[in-house]
Structure formats: structure tokens, C-alpha cells
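Posting here for the record, re: zinc ion.
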Amino acid sequence: MKRVFKVVRCPRCGFLQLTAASKIVRCFSCGLSWQLDREAILFSSPDFGRAREFLAKLKQRREAGFRKASGEG
Ligand SMILES: [Zn+2]
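Prediction output follows.
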């Protein structure tokens, strides 16, 4: 069975992360376990490298769009 990597956004805290889960995702940031739905999936690909690249670009854009409040995020 092929794995599909997805870039998802936590519905509670908005944290962006990469997952191979198909149903339940656990947020690395706030610890919430939540059910995947189409709206939460921003990108999906069987290619881990591409998914990771998408996530990196998304985070860059977020940093460009919002002022950095604290050093890391
Ligand atoms: Zn979260």
C-alpha cells in the first residue's frame, strides 16, 4: 500500500505539519487529535520530498505575511 504524505493544518491552533496519517492526526504543537477532512489537507503527494517542500514554502509565506512576534515559531 502506498503512503501519501499530506500537509495539514490543525483546526485548533493552526499549526502546519506533515503527516502520513489517513484518518487521525495528532498536532505536534497543541497535542490535539483530530480527524482529517478535505479542508484540512492543503497538499498531498506520495512524494515526501515534494510535500516537505510545499510545507517549507507555506511556512515561508506565513513568515512573510505576518510579523514575527517571537524569535521562533
Ligand atoms: Zn494544534
